[in-house]
């Protein structure tokens, strides 16, 4: 008996991880990507000899993505950001240590901060007492001093790419802070994230998966059981199982009567987190000591992703300045002006050193995050009302965030699909035996 084809929609991290797992299990897999290039938001763009990710990207060592990538044999080279970080306050840059011992930070604020960070390092991020309250409530319960609050908000924004303290679940946000505080926890990947995409694609193809670019999907056909897909060019693909590794709104659009399924809840509850990002390649760094800078009174962050490792440009330094949007906050011109002002303070004279520049005014960092309004905290991997349909993506995390959520959800979808296939095969054998 020939095996039914498995189709994965989307070639981002989630889709490629699922493809690797399924192909390595010996299943016939095809990945459909509507763009000409694989990778989704993990792709890397070359511009004037510089390698730009779509905004600043960091891989957390020991996280779900890191573990899965290494299991597949990916060579992950690169470097970690410096521990000598600085802060941006009132238009001025200073080392974090000087900021902590300046008149702005009182002795009691330093004591509060020390105690709160110690508690964060011990907490269980999944515990109800931190998952059922928002981040602002937790911070205000533990900080009387405003400077301590501002510093922790900055750490959360940077670690989660989200600026929504009134909605973020405290547990998930603080768990990410805990991870970021560990030494050498962050990896800036050599060659940009395209190197991860290319290695995942090669692993999937080597295992037997087929990857098809420029293949847009118009609909997932089903009658309560997945039957196939209709592509935007009018062609049809027969398939008994589909993993939709795309945003929840896109999956909802592809499925007939989706409003009667869990897809409606997942779509309606999703709150994307977006950022404005100014990516630059500079011939030199006018202020080389300012390599990592946290905005305290503005929701910005600066990081140097080059030198001595990883190398992301033929010459010069690739740096990123990010402004984290609050809910409903998005003004491309004002955001760009804010980032340029931040750069003036962090790297004075940077405008004369530009080799390449890319500005993204409204880049989606994640299509949903763990927030207190989330009706289903663990979306997917299976869509209960449509047999054979599964979901994956950074929005389908079960406690993970960002790329860790993407990779982990891709694996969950693949494992659930494989388990369902085993159950279906057992059922067929029982039916065949009963008919003899």
Largest sheet: 7 strands, mixed
Strand content: 15-25%
Number of E strands: 20
Q: Can you give the mean pLDDT? A: 93
Summarize the structure.
The protein has 436 residues and is α/β, with parallel strands linked by helices. The protein is built from 13 helices and 20 strands. A hairpin with a 2-residue loop joins strand 7 and strand 8 (92-95).
Explain this structure.
Helix 1 packs parallel to helix 13 and helix 7 crosses helix 8. The protein contains 13 helices and 20 strands. The protein is globular. It is of the alpha/beta class. A hairpin with a 4-residue loop joins strand 16 and strand 17. The protein has helices at residues 13-24, 64-71, 96-100, 107-122, 128-131, 135-142, 146-160, 170-180, 194-207, 248-254, 262-269, 332-346, 402-434; strands spanning 6-9, 29-32, 44-47, 50-53, 59-60, 78-79, 86-89, 92-95, 186-189, 210-212, 217-222, 226-231, 236-238, 241-244, 273-282, 292-295, 300-304, 317-324, 354-366, 389-391. The model has no long low-confidence stretch (mean pLDDT 93). The strands form five sheets. A seven-stranded mixed sheet has the order 8-7-16-17-18-15-19, with helices on both faces. Strands 10-2-1-14-20 form a five-stranded parallel sheet, with helices on one face.
Explain the layout of strands and helices.
Elements: E1 6-9, H1 13-24, E2 29-32, E3 44-47, E4 50-53, E5 59-60, H2 64-71, E6 78-79, E7 86-89, E8 92-95, H3 96-100, H4 107-122, H5 128-131, H6 135-142, H7 146-160, H8 170-180, E9 186-189, H9 194-207, E10 210-212, E11 217-222, E12 226-231, E13 236-238, E14 241-244, H10 248-254, H11 262-269, E15 273-282, E16 292-295, E17 300-304, E18 317-324, H12 332-346, E19 354-366, E20 389-391, H13 402-434
Parallel strand pairs: 1-2, 1-14, 2-10, 7-16, 14-20
Antiparallel strand pairs: 3-4, 5-9, 6-9, 7-8, 11-12, 12-13, 15-18, 15-19, 16-17, 17-18
Helix pairs in contact: 1-9, 1-13, 2-13, 6-8, 7-8, 10-11
């Amino acid at each position: 008996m020939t095996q039914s084809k498995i189709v994965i929609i989307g070639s981002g991290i989630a889709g490629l991880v699922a493809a690797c797992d399924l192909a390595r299990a010996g299943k016939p897999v095809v990945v459909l990507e509507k763009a000409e290039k694989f990778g989704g938001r993990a792709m890397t763009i070359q511009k004037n000899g510089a390698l730009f990710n779509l905004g600043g990207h960091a891989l957390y060592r020991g996280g779900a993505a890191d573990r899965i990538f290494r299991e597949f044999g990916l060579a992950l080279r690169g470097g970690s950001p410096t521990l000598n970080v600085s802060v941006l306050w009132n238009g001025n840059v200073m080392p974090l240590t000087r900021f902590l011992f300046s008149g702005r930070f009182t002795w009691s604020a330093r004591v509060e901060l020390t105690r709160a960070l110690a508690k964060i390092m011990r907490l269980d991020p999944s515990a109800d007492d931190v998952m059922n309250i928002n981040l602002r409530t937790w911070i205000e319960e533990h900080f009387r001093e405003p400077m301590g609050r501002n510093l922790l908000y900055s750490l959360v924004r940077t670690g989660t790419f989200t600026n929504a303290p009134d909605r973020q679940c405290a547990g998930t946000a603080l768990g990410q802070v805990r991870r970021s505080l560990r030494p050498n926890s962050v990896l800036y990947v050599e060659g940009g994230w395209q190197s991860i995409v290319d290695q995942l694609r090669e692993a999937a193809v080597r295992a037997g998966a087929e990857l098809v670019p420029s293949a847009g999907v118009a609909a997932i056909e089903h009658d309560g059981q997945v039957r196939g897909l209709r592509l935007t060019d009018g062609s049809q693909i027969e398939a008994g199982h589909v993993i939709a590794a795309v945003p929840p709104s896109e999956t909802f659009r592809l499925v007939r009567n989706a409003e009667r399924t869990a897809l409606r809840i997942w779509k309606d509850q999703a709150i994307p987190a977006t950022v404005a990002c100014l990516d630059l390649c500079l011939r030199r760094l006018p202020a080389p000591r300012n390599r990592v800078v946290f905005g305290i009174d503005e929701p910005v962050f600066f990081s140097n992703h080059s030198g001595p490792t990883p190398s992301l440009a033929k010459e010069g330094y690739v740096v990123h300045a990010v402004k984290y949007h609050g809910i409903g906050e998005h003004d491309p011109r004002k955001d760009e002006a804010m980032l340029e002002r931040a750069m003036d303070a962090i790297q004075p004279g940077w405008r004369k050193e530009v080799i390449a520049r890319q500005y993204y005014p409204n880049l989606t960092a994640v299509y949903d995050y763990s927030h207190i309004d989330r009706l289903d905290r663990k979306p997917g991997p299976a869509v209960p009302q449509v047999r054979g349909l599964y979901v994956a993506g950074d929005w389908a995390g079960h406690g993970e965030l960002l790329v860790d959520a993407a990779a982990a959800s891709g694996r969950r979808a693949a494992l659930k699909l494989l388990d369902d296939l085993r159950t279906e095969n057992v059922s067929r054998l029982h039916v065949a035996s009963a008919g003899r």
